[in-house]
Amino acid sequence: MSPPVGTTGSQLSRGRWAFAFALVTSLFFTWGFAYGLLDVLNAHFQTVFHITKLQSTLLQLAYFGAYFVYAPFAGVFMKRYGYKRGIHMGLGLYSLGAIFFWPSAKFQKYGGFVGSTFVIGCGLATLEVAANSYIAVLGSPKHAAARLNFSQGFQGVASFAGPMIASKWFFLGKNATTLDTVQWVYLAVAGLGVVLNILFFFCDLPEITEDALTAEIAEVGIKDVGPFWKQYRCIFGWVAQTSYVGAQVGVAAFVVNFLVDQGVGISQSRASQLFSYCQITFTGGRFIGVVLLHFIDPALLLSFYGICCTAFAIGVSQATGYGGVGCLFCLFFFESICYPCIFTLGTKNLGVHTKRGSGLIVMGVGGGAWYPSAQGALADAASTRRSYLVPVSGYIAMSLYAIGLVVDQAIKNGFRFRNVDEFAVKRAAVSEAYPASGLLESGESTYRTKTPDSEKKGSVDMVEQVEG
Questions:
Q1: Which spans are transmembrane here (predicted)?
Q2: Do 261 and 384 contact (CB within 8 A), yes or no?
Q3: Which residues in the chain come in under a pLDDT of 50?
């Protein structure tokens, strides 16, 4: 059997691995900045266009609705043409959407902003499918969640930079009621996208193929993963991601309104600044999560964080004054690891379905399209504080997914607190099952052995038991 075309992260030299990791990680900063500005524009447009909180969530509907529509297509595109071309397409759409913010601001058209945001969302959906999937498979599955948390930590850095910029230039002086600053900020964002596109064109980014990934998991005794519709961990991961992202986006969309309405004398400018501090808390939590995920099983840690998110979201909806503000900061901290953990747990060991599965999980970001609208309707009808009951449902769904994975693992192989290298465990099982050689032909699903067929059947059963 000829070796599979392409490579895997574990086959790269240390230098090429570090280069690929750093280059793809730069993409996380790109969409973190755009996302950080989005929630601030939500409040800014309420003032400039004299629209309600519910109407302002059209931005979230366009941005996250683009993920729902475009992410599956992006996964299919990269399955055929590879990660690098997918990154080029994503950066191109991202820059194009940002450029159209200029005429929208110039002619004061809220609909233009909504349309431009949709195009940006399509670009970022493509980048998320590429970057999240690439980082997840760029090495051992044991550290996939830690790697993705580290890379997405830079998304958090950019996320608090957006509100910080807004607090200085969107809400002060004449900028509080105009869009002059918005158009220049987004022209700079478009320029950043163009520069990154040029850098990726001239850089040698190693292509990690699904054939190579399939061969890698075959080497440790994992049989054919079966059709895509049977990848229940991935399908339920999409449900969990849809619910979680919807909750996260709803929480962030009304932070400025929530802080101003708390009755403790917080202005819009000060609220935007505090929002950036919330994002700093989120980012710090993500880097702390990198350390924790080296030692604690990702599904178990996600279960704990999901329960904490549920509790503090309820706290935000009920507590008044600075008590609610404190619960809000805690909520941002415990949100930190959720998205990367759901992604890596849902796409683990998919083999030939890796890119398609990545597209499905990223499609879950579309949950951010309708949660803010539901929350905005409740905020208009009751209060911003009470509207934070809406995200609670999303955190509960995410927690059930994580707890389900923990229970499933406990039933099959016993309860596991520590994070373990499953590939190493399976290789050891294969070696024990085949003492004559313990080796697989590279890229094959049969073993070199002189063991009689009757003994081989028992050995294969041992391997399949470890797979469970």
A1: 17-38, 58-77, 89-105, 117-138, 150-172, 184-203, 287-316, 322-345, 357-373, 388-407
A2: yes
A3: 1-5, 437-468
